[in-house]
């Protein structure tokens, strides 16, 4: 015999079951962050690449630096190659500590990842990314960026020796690539935003994976103030511990 109440119960149960099956499984935010880091050099046993940093003002390119970057695990060496006036300058990052050296300086000088290198780019922006080491991640939502479905992570600094106190990070659901970032000051205000592209490819663990090719950083209050970082000639390779040694930073 037809029972309306039973029919309603069945329909409600079916709707709940369908919703549970359709809802995407929320990832572990720290594991997702660790996975996304690899496409920006974090966690790889060794990588070397070339980079340029170009300041843009009112749509016109201005000052530019060219760099060679060598990195392994949590350490990075950045060698300045152009223009000639900065050739021979170096920056070394070991964990969360950073030093600068130049041919006319006898001893390395401790510097902060928060210091500005050129335009909107800080020292910490240049080194390979290891957000999973430096930040605690919380999944705060979902959204879209340029039509792509993303997970939204809130990253809180584990210490004061990193480039930013807090980051809102947008990670593509399809490939776990971080495609947008918003960088916050201690005050809670947004300092800068960034868009990130991945058109490079490297071989890692027997497979081809995408790697960062371009990053555009803009001032949050004056978006016309932009800095573009480009990356090319990326190779996954062993980097010796001597290359990333503080004792060797001032040696040619």
From TrEMBL:
Residues 1-22 form the signal peptide. CDD domains: LolA_like (cd16329). Keywords: Lipoprotein, Signal. It holds the Pfam family LolA_like. InterPro entries: TP_0789-like, UCP028205. It comes from the Bacteria. Residues 74-251 form the Uncharacterized protein TP-0789 domain. This is Outer membrane lipoprotein-sorting protein.
């Amino acid at each position: 015999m037809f029972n309306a109440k039973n029919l309603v119960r069945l329909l409600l149960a079916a709707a709940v079951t369908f919703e549970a099956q359709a809802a995407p499984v929320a990832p572990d935010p720290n594991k997702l962050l660790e996975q996304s880091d690899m496409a920006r050099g974090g966690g790889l046993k060794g990588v070397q690449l070339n980079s340029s940093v170009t300041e843009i003002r009112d749509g016109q390119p201005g000052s530019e630096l060219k760099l060679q970057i060598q990195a392994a695990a949590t350490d990075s060496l950045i060698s300045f190659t152009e223009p000639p006036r900065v050739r021979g300058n170096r920056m070394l990052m070991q964990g969360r500590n950073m030093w600068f050296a130049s041919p006319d300086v006898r001893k390395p000088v401790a510097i902060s990842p928060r210091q500005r290198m050129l335009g909107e780019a800080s020292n910490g922006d240049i080194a390979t990314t290891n957000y999973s080491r430096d930040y605690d991640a919380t999944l705060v939502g979902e959204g879209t960026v340029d039509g792509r479905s993303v997970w939204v992570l809130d990253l809180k600094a584990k210490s004061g020796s990193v480039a930013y106190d807090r980051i809102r990070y947008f990670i593509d659901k399809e490939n776990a690539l971080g495609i947008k970032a918003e960088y916050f000051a201690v005050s809670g205000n947004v300092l800068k935003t960034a868009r990130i592209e991945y058109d490079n490819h490297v071989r890692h663990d027997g497979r081809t994976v995408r790697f960062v090719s371009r990053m555009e950083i803009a001032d949050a209050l004056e978006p016309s103030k932009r800095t573009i970082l480009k990356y090319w000639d990326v190779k996954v390779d062993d980097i010796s511990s001597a290359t990333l040694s503080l004792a060797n930073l001032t040696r040619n």
